[in-house]
Design goal:
This protein is of the alpha+beta class and 382 residues long. It is built from nine helices and 18 strands. It folds into two domains: 147 residues, Nucleoside Triphosphate Pyrophosphohydrolase (Alpha-Beta Complex); 171 residues, Aminopeptidase, CATH 3.40.630.30. The strands form three sheets. The protein has an eight-stranded mixed sheet, with helices on both faces. Strands 4, 5, 6, 7, 8, 9 and 10 form a seven-stranded mixed sheet that branches. It has a three-stranded antiparallel sheet with strand order 1-2-3, with no helix packed on it. The longest helix is centred in the C-terminal third of the chain and has 17 residues.
């Protein structure tokens, strides 16, 4: 999260939102958000976006690895389709709770629900789509009779579900593939056994707190959201990181409740809150993880009032030691802008070695910049 540290850093900053307005289609179902933006070169443009909140779809698996689908009419395709159960996430519920509710309402089944990942509906939509797996599904009642939905549960084999996805005869094909990929069940040869928790796990980092030198690295909680919101609006943070501008409370909520969760669940990294005496002083994350090559990147930011106290150097040392020694990784990389001298001091004090300058590697305020590549490898451990 330091300047240029993220392997997936955006090539330019997000467009600045100048104004926005909302409207609703005549039936009241479809909602639109019209935004006016300032582009990096100063020009302005307007976009009409589908603005329907969050949704969740569920890959429902029985103990026999049958997939539970919902046969229902779909107005857009104008045909009856066998769909993955799912629907909208209400404003007062989490994607996990919505997945449990929709599964029960549409199929009458219950199961052990886990959110796997999320993606976006389209480039012209704010809708975030979550996908969940429900293992050990069992029918506990009849489907609910909803006003505008007529749902009939259908059970098919896992191989038939793969064929169903290939045929494209459902509206969540991408989420179906995403779920199977996360569960390592895309290939037939991988489903001879039941989908137990051991079978479905992908490589992820442990979430236990890491403690040392007066620092605790822990998972973020909802109580941290106000500090995240305040910190990410700090001019120094906005200067070095590709954050939304303005950075709103919903962005802080998304960082804690979605970004951090997705990084862990997908195995791409893990996000830690840096805690000193019960107070949040910063954030540090692992990203761009290659489990096969045993390497990753690290990024970080500090709460403004806690800068200059040595917390970040201690946190970086603690985390990099943990990655290299306890997790068996071979290499960690950090990219830092050539003029971000404060961050350079942090990594050098944490025993990272300067390897060289990467030209035009990152983007700062809409322009390509050079960054310094720092690394720490397993042989550097004292």
């Amino acid at each position: 999260m330091s300047a240029g540290s993220d392997h997936n850093e955006a090539p330019f900053p997000p467009w600045k939102i100048l104004s926005e307005s909302r409207s609703t289609a005549p039936s009241g179902f479809l909602k639109l958000l019209t935004r006016r933006y300032e582009l990096p070169d100063g020009r302005t443009t307007s976009w009409d976006l589908i603005d329907t909140g969050k949704t969740v779809a569920i890959l429902a698996l029985t103990t026999d690895n049958e997939v539970i689908l919902v046969r229902q009419y779909r107005a857009g395709p104008n045909r009856v389709l066998d769909e993955m159960p799912g629907g909208y996430v209400d404003l007062d519920e989490s994607p996990h709770d919505a997945a449990r509710r929709e599964l029960l309402e549409e199929t009458g089944y219950e199961g052990d629900v886990e959110i796997l990942a999320s993606t976006w509906l389209a480039a012209s939509a704010t809708t975030q789509r979550f996908v969940a797996v429900a293992r050990n599904c069992r029918q506990v009642r009849e489907p609910a009779q909803l006003d505008d939905e007529y749902c009939v549960p259908v059970a098919i084999s896992l191989e038939d579900f793969r064929q169903h996805l290939r045929g494209g005869q459902l509206t969540d094909v991408d989420l179906g593939y995403l779920a199977l990929d996360h569960l390592q069940m895309l290939q037939s040869s991988m489903v001879a056994t039941t989908c137990s928790s051991d079978m479905s796990k992908i490589a992820t980092f442990p979430t236990d707190p890491i403690i040392g030198d007066g620092i605790t690295l822990r998972q973020f909680t909802a109580d941290d959201i106000p500090v995240v919101y305040e910190t990410c609006n700090d001019p120094e943070i906005q200067k070095w990181l590709p954050l939304a501008s303005p950075y709103e409370l919903k962005d802080a909520e998304g960082f804690v409740q979605e970004f951090a969760v997705n990084a862990l669940n997908t195995g791409t990294g893990i996000v830690f809150a840096i805690d000193v005496d019960g107070e949040l002083v910063g954030a540090i994350d692992i990203s761009g993880t290659s489990w096969s090559n045993r390497d990753c990147g690290i990024g970080y930011w500090a709460v403004p009032r806690h800068r200059g106290r040595g917390h970040m150097t201690k946190a970086l040392t603690l985390l990099s030691d943990w990655v290299l020694r306890d997790q068996g990784f071979e290499r960690i990389e950090i990219f830092i802008a050539t003029d971000n001298f404060a961050s350079q001091k942090v990594v050098e004090k944490a025993d990272f070695k300067r390897e060289g300058i990467c030209r035009n590697k990152a983007t700062q305020r809409g322009e390509k910049i050079d960054v310094i590549l720092y690394s720490r490898i397993s042989e550097d451990l004292s």
